[in-house]
Amino acid sequence: LLRVLDLSWVKFEGGKLPSSIGGLIHLRYLRLYGAGVSHLPSTMRNLKLLLYLNLNVDNEEPIHVPNVLKEMIQLRYLCLPLNMDDKTKLELGDLVNLEYLSGFSTQHSSVTDLLRMTKLRYLAVSLSERCNFETLSSSLRELRNLETLNFLFTPETYKVDYMGEFVLDHFIHLKQLGLAVRMSKIPDQHQFPPHLAHIYLFYCGMEEDPMPILEKLLHLKSVQLTYKAFVGSRMVCSKGGFPQLCALEISEESELEEWIVEEGS
Protein backbone atom coordinates (compact mmCIF):
# COMPACT_ATOMS: atom_id res chain seq x y z
CA LEU A 1 0.00 0.00 0.00
CA LEU A 2 3.06 2.30 0.02
CA ARG A 3 2.52 5.53 -1.92
CA VAL A 4 5.77 7.47 -1.32
CA LEU A 5 9.30 6.03 -1.26
CA ASP A 6 12.47 8.13 -1.04
CA LEU A 7 15.68 6.09 -1.48
CA SER A 8 18.03 9.06 -1.98
CA TRP A 9 21.70 8.26 -1.22
CA VAL A 10 20.94 4.62 -0.40
CA LYS A 11 23.76 2.25 -1.46
CA PHE A 12 22.47 -1.03 -2.88
CA GLU A 13 24.47 -4.25 -2.78
CA GLY A 14 26.04 -4.86 -6.18
CA GLY A 15 24.42 -1.68 -7.41
CA LYS A 16 21.16 -3.54 -8.00
CA LEU A 17 17.79 -2.11 -7.06
CA PRO A 18 15.82 -5.14 -5.80
CA SER A 19 13.28 -6.53 -8.24
CA SER A 20 10.75 -6.54 -5.39
CA ILE A 21 10.29 -2.80 -6.08
CA GLY A 22 7.85 -3.95 -8.76
CA GLY A 23 5.48 -5.20 -6.06
CA LEU A 24 4.82 -1.67 -4.81
CA ILE A 25 2.10 -1.20 -7.39
CA HIS A 26 0.46 1.75 -5.63
CA LEU A 27 3.59 3.92 -5.61
CA ARG A 28 3.00 7.50 -6.71
CA TYR A 29 6.43 8.88 -5.79
CA LEU A 30 9.86 7.19 -6.15
CA ARG A 31 13.10 9.10 -5.62
CA LEU A 32 16.55 7.55 -6.22
CA TYR A 33 18.54 10.79 -6.21
CA GLY A 34 22.23 10.09 -5.48
CA ALA A 35 21.51 6.41 -4.81
CA GLY A 36 24.21 3.81 -5.53
CA VAL A 37 22.40 2.04 -8.36
CA SER A 38 23.82 0.68 -11.62
CA HIS A 39 21.02 -1.75 -12.52
CA LEU A 40 17.29 -1.09 -12.59
CA PRO A 41 14.99 -4.14 -12.67
CA SER A 42 12.47 -4.72 -15.45
CA THR A 43 9.81 -5.22 -12.75
CA MET A 44 9.59 -1.42 -12.53
CA ARG A 45 7.12 -1.69 -15.41
CA ASN A 46 4.52 -2.56 -12.75
CA LEU A 47 4.68 0.94 -11.26
CA LYS A 48 2.00 2.26 -13.59
CA LEU A 49 0.57 4.78 -11.11
CA LEU A 50 3.80 6.74 -10.59
CA LEU A 51 3.42 10.51 -10.80
CA TYR A 52 7.01 11.35 -9.76
CA LEU A 53 10.16 9.41 -10.70
CA ASN A 54 13.68 10.69 -10.04
CA LEU A 55 16.41 8.43 -11.46
CA ASN A 56 19.27 10.92 -11.06
CA VAL A 57 21.37 8.27 -9.35
CA ASP A 58 25.02 8.44 -8.31
CA ASN A 59 26.30 6.74 -11.43
CA GLU A 60 29.99 7.12 -12.16
CA GLU A 61 29.52 3.97 -14.24
CA PRO A 62 26.89 4.12 -17.01
CA ILE A 63 23.54 2.76 -15.89
CA HIS A 64 21.23 0.63 -18.03
CA VAL A 65 17.61 1.73 -17.85
CA PRO A 66 15.21 -0.94 -19.15
CA ASN A 67 12.59 0.25 -21.61
CA VAL A 68 9.76 0.23 -19.05
CA LEU A 69 9.06 3.93 -18.58
CA LYS A 70 6.69 3.97 -21.57
CA GLU A 71 4.09 2.18 -19.40
CA MET A 72 4.11 4.86 -16.68
CA ILE A 73 1.64 7.04 -18.54
CA GLN A 74 0.52 8.92 -15.40
CA LEU A 75 3.99 10.44 -14.87
CA ARG A 76 4.09 14.21 -14.32
CA TYR A 77 7.77 14.43 -13.26
CA LEU A 78 10.64 12.41 -14.74
CA CYS A 79 14.34 12.93 -14.07
CA LEU A 80 16.54 10.54 -16.06
CA PRO A 81 20.15 9.52 -15.21
CA LEU A 82 22.88 11.73 -16.64
CA ASN A 83 25.02 8.73 -17.58
CA MET A 84 23.22 5.88 -19.38
CA ASP A 85 24.93 3.04 -21.23
CA ASP A 86 24.93 2.69 -25.02
CA LYS A 87 22.36 -0.13 -24.93
CA THR A 88 19.70 2.04 -23.30
CA LYS A 89 16.88 2.86 -25.71
CA LEU A 90 13.82 4.46 -24.16
CA GLU A 91 10.41 4.98 -25.71
CA LEU A 92 8.80 7.98 -24.03
CA GLY A 93 6.24 9.08 -26.61
CA ASP A 94 3.24 7.94 -24.53
CA LEU A 95 4.17 10.08 -21.50
CA VAL A 96 1.83 12.85 -22.60
CA ASN A 97 1.10 14.02 -19.03
CA LEU A 98 4.71 15.00 -18.28
CA GLU A 99 5.18 18.53 -17.00
CA TYR A 100 8.85 18.14 -15.97
CA LEU A 101 11.43 16.18 -17.97
CA SER A 102 15.14 16.29 -17.17
CA GLY A 103 17.99 14.24 -18.64
CA PHE A 104 16.29 13.57 -21.99
CA SER A 105 19.04 12.45 -24.38
CA THR A 106 18.81 12.25 -28.16
CA GLN A 107 21.30 9.38 -27.92
CA HIS A 108 18.89 7.19 -25.93
CA SER A 109 15.46 8.41 -27.09
CA SER A 110 13.89 9.68 -30.28
CA VAL A 111 13.40 13.43 -30.64
CA THR A 112 9.92 12.72 -32.01
CA ASP A 113 8.95 11.38 -28.56
CA LEU A 114 8.75 15.02 -27.45
CA LEU A 115 6.08 15.92 -30.02
CA ARG A 116 3.13 14.78 -27.88
CA MET A 117 4.40 16.14 -24.55
CA THR A 118 2.45 19.36 -24.93
CA LYS A 119 2.04 19.83 -21.15
CA LEU A 120 5.78 20.16 -20.56
CA ARG A 121 6.79 23.24 -18.58
CA TYR A 122 10.39 22.19 -17.82
CA LEU A 123 12.68 20.41 -20.29
CA ALA A 124 16.40 19.64 -20.08
CA VAL A 125 17.86 18.00 -23.20
CA SER A 126 21.27 16.46 -23.85
CA LEU A 127 22.17 16.49 -27.53
CA SER A 128 24.29 13.83 -29.20
CA GLU A 129 26.23 14.22 -32.43
CA ARG A 130 23.37 12.67 -34.38
CA CYS A 131 20.98 15.50 -33.55
CA ASN A 132 21.72 19.13 -34.25
CA PHE A 133 19.91 22.09 -32.79
CA GLU A 134 17.91 22.71 -35.97
CA THR A 135 16.39 19.22 -35.91
CA LEU A 136 15.52 19.51 -32.26
CA SER A 137 14.00 22.98 -32.35
CA SER A 138 11.60 21.90 -35.11
CA SER A 139 10.50 18.98 -32.93
CA LEU A 140 9.82 21.30 -30.01
CA ARG A 141 7.45 23.65 -31.80
CA GLU A 142 4.33 22.19 -30.19
CA LEU A 143 5.64 22.55 -26.63
CA ARG A 144 4.11 25.97 -26.23
CA ASN A 145 3.75 25.73 -22.45
CA LEU A 146 7.50 25.52 -21.81
CA GLU A 147 8.73 27.89 -19.12
CA THR A 148 12.26 26.51 -18.65
CA LEU A 149 14.47 25.00 -21.36
CA ASN A 150 18.04 23.77 -20.92
CA PHE A 151 20.26 22.47 -23.73
CA LEU A 152 23.39 20.45 -22.99
CA PHE A 153 25.82 18.94 -25.44
CA THR A 154 27.77 15.80 -24.65
CA PRO A 155 31.56 16.41 -24.42
CA GLU A 156 32.32 14.96 -27.84
CA THR A 157 30.04 17.49 -29.52
CA TYR A 158 31.66 20.57 -27.97
CA LYS A 159 34.17 20.68 -30.81
CA VAL A 160 31.59 21.71 -33.42
CA ASP A 161 29.26 24.69 -33.63
CA TYR A 162 25.87 22.95 -33.64
CA MET A 163 23.56 25.91 -33.18
CA GLY A 164 22.23 25.87 -36.73
CA GLU A 165 18.93 27.70 -37.13
CA PHE A 166 18.35 28.73 -33.54
CA VAL A 167 14.75 29.99 -33.38
CA LEU A 168 12.82 29.85 -30.11
CA ASP A 169 10.68 32.95 -30.54
CA HIS A 170 7.49 30.84 -30.68
CA PHE A 171 7.89 29.90 -26.99
CA ILE A 172 5.86 32.80 -25.68
CA HIS A 173 5.85 31.46 -22.08
CA LEU A 174 9.57 30.65 -21.88
CA LYS A 175 11.17 32.54 -19.00
CA GLN A 176 14.41 30.63 -18.41
CA LEU A 177 16.95 29.36 -20.96
CA GLY A 178 20.18 27.51 -20.28
CA LEU A 179 22.69 26.81 -23.06
CA ALA A 180 25.76 24.64 -22.62
CA VAL A 181 26.20 24.63 -26.37
CA ARG A 182 29.15 25.34 -28.63
CA MET A 183 28.60 28.57 -30.61
CA SER A 184 31.03 31.11 -32.01
CA LYS A 185 28.48 33.91 -31.64
CA ILE A 186 25.20 34.35 -29.84
CA PRO A 187 22.03 34.26 -31.99
CA ASP A 188 20.25 37.49 -32.95
CA GLN A 189 17.89 38.93 -30.33
CA HIS A 190 14.84 38.30 -32.55
CA GLN A 191 15.48 34.56 -32.33
CA PHE A 192 15.05 34.46 -28.55
CA PRO A 193 11.71 34.01 -26.74
CA PRO A 194 9.97 37.38 -26.39
CA HIS A 195 9.60 37.33 -22.58
CA LEU A 196 12.86 35.66 -21.59
CA ALA A 197 13.82 36.65 -18.02
CA HIS A 198 16.83 34.44 -17.21
CA ILE A 199 19.63 33.13 -19.42
CA TYR A 200 22.54 30.90 -18.40
CA LEU A 201 25.46 30.34 -20.80
CA PHE A 202 28.15 27.69 -20.13
CA TYR A 203 31.03 26.30 -22.21
CA CYS A 204 29.82 28.14 -25.33
CA GLY A 205 33.23 29.33 -26.50
CA MET A 206 31.74 32.52 -27.97
CA GLU A 207 34.37 34.57 -29.76
CA GLU A 208 32.11 37.60 -30.27
CA ASP A 209 30.95 39.75 -27.36
CA PRO A 210 27.40 38.57 -26.48
CA MET A 211 26.48 41.77 -24.62
CA PRO A 212 25.26 43.80 -27.65
CA ILE A 213 22.62 41.09 -28.20
CA LEU A 214 21.77 40.26 -24.59
CA GLU A 215 21.29 43.89 -23.56
CA LYS A 216 18.51 44.23 -26.16
CA LEU A 217 16.41 41.47 -24.51
CA LEU A 218 14.12 43.84 -22.66
CA HIS A 219 12.76 41.47 -20.01
CA LEU A 220 16.06 39.93 -18.85
CA LYS A 221 16.41 39.92 -15.06
CA SER A 222 19.48 37.71 -14.74
CA VAL A 223 22.42 36.71 -16.93
CA GLN A 224 25.09 34.14 -16.13
CA LEU A 225 28.25 33.69 -18.22
CA THR A 226 30.56 31.02 -16.85
CA TYR A 227 33.06 28.29 -17.71
CA LYS A 228 34.40 29.80 -20.93
CA ALA A 229 31.04 30.93 -22.22
CA PHE A 230 32.97 33.86 -23.73
CA VAL A 231 36.56 33.43 -24.90
CA GLY A 232 37.09 36.98 -26.18
CA SER A 233 39.11 39.62 -24.36
CA ARG A 234 36.76 42.65 -24.46
CA MET A 235 33.17 43.07 -23.35
CA VAL A 236 31.03 46.21 -23.61
CA CYS A 237 27.69 47.02 -21.91
CA SER A 238 26.29 50.09 -23.63
CA LYS A 239 24.06 52.92 -22.48
CA GLY A 240 20.37 52.03 -22.18
CA GLY A 241 20.97 48.29 -22.29
CA PHE A 242 19.55 45.73 -19.82
CA PRO A 243 16.65 47.90 -18.59
CA GLN A 244 15.43 45.28 -16.05
CA LEU A 245 18.61 43.41 -15.12
CA CYS A 246 18.89 42.54 -11.40
CA ALA A 247 21.73 39.99 -11.41
CA LEU A 248 24.82 39.44 -13.55
CA GLU A 249 27.37 36.71 -12.95
CA ILE A 250 30.62 36.49 -14.92
CA SER A 251 32.99 33.77 -13.74
CA GLU A 252 35.64 31.38 -15.04
CA GLU A 253 36.22 33.64 -18.07
CA SER A 254 40.01 33.58 -18.11
CA GLU A 255 40.44 35.39 -21.44
CA LEU A 256 38.51 38.49 -20.39
CA GLU A 257 40.84 41.48 -20.04
CA GLU A 258 38.59 44.52 -20.48
CA TRP A 259 34.97 45.17 -19.46
CA ILE A 260 33.47 48.51 -20.34
CA VAL A 261 30.21 49.51 -18.65
CA GLU A 262 28.87 52.72 -20.12
CA GLU A 263 26.95 55.17 -17.95
CA GLY A 264 23.23 54.33 -18.07
CA SER A 265 23.74 50.63 -18.72
UniProtKB/TrEMBL annotation:
| Domain of life per record | Eukaryota
Q: Pfam families from the xrefs?
A: LRR_14
Residues of the signal peptide: none
The record's SUPFAM superfamilies line, in alphabetical order, gives: L domain-like (SSF52058)
Q: What are the Disease resistance R13L4/SHOC-2-like LRR domain coordinates in residue numbering?
A: 1-251
Keywords on this record?
Answer: Repeat
Give the protein name, as stated in the record.
Disease resistance protein Rpp8-like protein
